[in-house]
Amino acid sequence: MRGTLRALFLTASATRAFASCAHGTFLHPREEGGAVEVGKFGYIGSIGPLHWAALDSPANNLCATGTRQSPINMVDGVFTVLQGSDVQLTVNDMPNGADFENLGTTVEVVAQGGTLKVADKQFELQQFHFHLPSEHLDNGTSQAMEMHMVFQSAQKEIAVIGVYINIADQPSSNTTTTTSLSKAAPKRSLPGLTRRESPLAATPLLETLFTSLPAITNPGTRTKTAPLAMGPLVDLLLKGNTFQTYSGSLTTPPCSEGVRWLVSGARLAVTPATFARARDVLGFNARFVQNAPGEPNALMQAAVGTAVAAVEAGAGLAGGRV
Ligand SMILES: *[C@@H]1O[C@H](CO)[C@@H](O)[C@H](O)[C@H]1NC(C)=O
Ligand SMILES: *[C@@H]1O[C@H](CO)[C@@H](O)[C@H](O)[C@H]1NC(C)=O
């Protein structure tokens, strides 16, 4: 069986897995001014998450063998909680708009500066991109979408802020958005009540950004967004917010580990129409939920189970049983 497993995990392939979650970091530098690179991996079938390791072995081996893989179920009360005040975050406004790219595997905004300081480590914002539905589960529950803000340190470490995106109950409004979103943030302060407090207003940043989605419906395309004000997002993430933090991985090939995750309690929201627009472009781009940090990789467990089933099926056939 050892040989079988090795063959399973060491299957080499010439295919490179471009356009990963680490796009724009040292793991996958962005080509300045170049064409938009389209991902060679996917979420369904033979290029889906069950096959990421085989798509480019050994580069992607951790996807099938790593024991600290992401995303995971963010079970209440299990993870270290950081207060917004434990984190320093800046994100530069983009008054002339931002480059917004369709990588095939996600849509991504190229950042124009931003910093994250957490536990005395400083990271620089590279990009933010979107998953549909959410990749992390909020105490067992998937959310409509999830935004990943990807940061890199000078020592080439990666940190990602994950923010759930819910469906809004009302359109965005400049005067009420920030307060209603902040109120929705500390969801654990009201045990027994629904997680989403009403009314949840749509986030102006996302409504503005996703207005540009029709311009990048095809993989490999890029557009310029309207001006993006990032201050309200920073306020939402810092003021009265908490983060569950853990050490995990990229949720795309090469599934590199040692990624510091900060999963935000405060959420963003989009109107139903905007969600539909995002779904039309993203389709489905969430990796399946991985085992808790430190547990065996789910694919290793599955391979053992498959081998056992095969042996039993073989024995059954040999014994003439049906
Ligand atoms: C988290 O999930 C568990 C198991 O389903 C449940 O018992 C618990 O009440 C949930 N916690 C919150 C805050 O919803
Ligand atoms: C809300 O924002 C829009 C677009 O940014 C602006 O045109 C409008 O004047 C703002 N309304 C208020 C009440 O500030």
Automatic annotation (TrEMBL):
Cite the record's Low complexity compositional bias ranges: 173-182
Q: Which family does it belong to?
A: Belongs to the alpha-carbonic anhydrase family.
Metal-binding in keyword set: yes
Q: Name one GO molecular function term.
A: carbonate dehydratase activity
Catalytic activity reads: hydrogencarbonate + H(+) = CO2 + H2O
Query: E.C. number, please?
Result: 4.2.1.1
Mind telling me what this protein is named? Answer: carbonic anhydrase
Q: Which residues form the Alpha-carbonic anhydrase domain?
A: 39-312
Q: Where is this region: Disordered?
A: 173-192
Signal sequence coordinates: 1-19
Keyword terms, alphabetized:
Lyase, Metal-binding, Signal, Zinc
| Database matches in PANTHER family | CARBONIC ANHYDRASE (PTHR18952)
